[in-house]
Design a protein that fits this description.
single chain, alpha+beta, five-stranded antiparallel β-sheet, three-stranded antiparallel β-sheet, 13 helices
């Protein structure tokens, strides 16, 4: 059975915040709201830290147990936070704890564990704005800037090549790692729509033949791995530009073009009628910062379809384990609308759209 999310309510979160981080004596801290998270427990908080003139907003994060068990991995994430502070957009930065560290390890009781599990806890700076998902359908200008952002993150993280941080992330076994999509093949039979099921199997077969043999030869490095509409932050006063990027929890080592494919897969789901045509500005924005080789251009559509297939597979498998929970199929339904449209397109169709 998968390990559940940390059991940290608002009261305990405030207590831990004051106990572990340098909240100024006599100053109040408050929970603004709990933030959506798949694995971790995240709270948007306001606190007045010692030696600062006024209160600020933060994210109080209790990492899932599976991320908390490896100090090596936690240190790697600290290096990621530090490196992304040099990127062209804002990203969260860790706050030093009372112990002088960028995270704390704390045993917290959980009803499903006889011994209290140990969790890693961070306080991160808050990136203000609205998510791209809640901004509405993005303009061509915004999509172009999203493309800039995807390329810039890869370029920014190149400085971690050959470091212990990169090595720690490469060792991680992660179910959403797009380069390991074939482990999801077990869930093909869970896809309820027989036509979508056939398309997903075809994508997996193509990945096995057309991508897997070339993984070691493509330009690769650390990538964000999950640039979806909830992780891209927009400033409402500048709605055509990316203001920030959050959630580096899915960072992996993979071909750089895979990060573009992942982002395109999510953005296309905002344009169900014309998915490939509508995201062309994003591809152009990316290529203006990091030009694609002919081979990368050729396989880009397959990377997109691979991420869409992953989404369908994980959602369908989760639904098979919890039948009746229609919420679990929402992501699969939108991905299942886009995937057949892309699968029906020829390589020449993509060349015309994404020169």
């Amino acid at each position: 059975m998968a390990s559940p999310r940390p059991m940290v309510d608002k009261k305990l979160a405030l207590l831990l915040l004051k106990q572990l981080f340098p909240v100024a004596d006599g100053k109040e801290a408050e929970i603004i709201r709990e933030l959506t998270s798949y694995d971790d427990r995240n709270y948007h908080v306001r606190a007045h830290l010692a030696n600062e003139s006024e209160s600020r907003e933060f994210v109080f994060k209790v990492h899932h147990q599976k991320f908390s068990g490896s100090v090596e991995f936690l240190e790697a994430h600290t290096r990621l936070f530090e490196r992304l502070s040099h990127a062209s957009v804002q990203s969260p930065m860790p706050v030093t704890s009372r112990e002088g560290t960028f995270y704390c390890l704390k045993e917290l009781a959980h009803p499903l564990h006889s011994e209290p599990p140990r969790y890693a806890i961070r306080l991160l700076s808050y990136v203000p704005g609205v998510t791209l998902m809640h901004q509405g359908q993005p303009s061509d200008t915004l999509l172009r800037d999203v493309g800039h952002c995807v390329a810039d993150i890869g370029i920014c993280l190149e400085s971690l090549k050959g470091t212990e941080a990169e090595a720690a992330i490469r060792k991680r076994e992660f179910e959403w790692d797009i380069t390991n999509v074939l482990v999801c093949e077990r869930a093909v039979s869970c896809i309820p729509d027989v036509n979508v099921r056939g398309t997903v199997q075809t994508v997996l077969d193509r990945f096995r033949l057309e991508l897997q043999p070339h993984l070691d030869n493509m330009p690769s490095g650390l990538i964000h791995g999950d640039l979806n509409g909830m992780n891209v932050i927009i400033d409402p006063d500048r709605p055509h530009c990316v203001h920030g990027v959050i959630d580096i929890g899915d960072t992996i080592y993979a071909p750089y073009v895979a990060d573009l494919g992942i982002c395109l897969a999510y953005m296309m789901q905002l344009f169900l009628e014309t998915p490939a045509e509508s995201v062309a500005p994003l591809v152009k924005g990316y290529c203006s910062r990091r030009p694609l080789s002919d081979f990368e251009k050729e396989v880009l559509p397959l990377w997109v379809m691979t991420r869409l297939s992953q989404t369908i597979l994980f959602s369908s498998e989760a639904y098979s384990q919890d039948p009746g929970n229609e919420y679990l199929l929402q992501n699969a339904e939108t991905a299942g609308t886009v995937l057949p449209r892309l699968a029906a397109m020829s390589p020449d169709d993509f060349k015309l759209l994404w020169p």
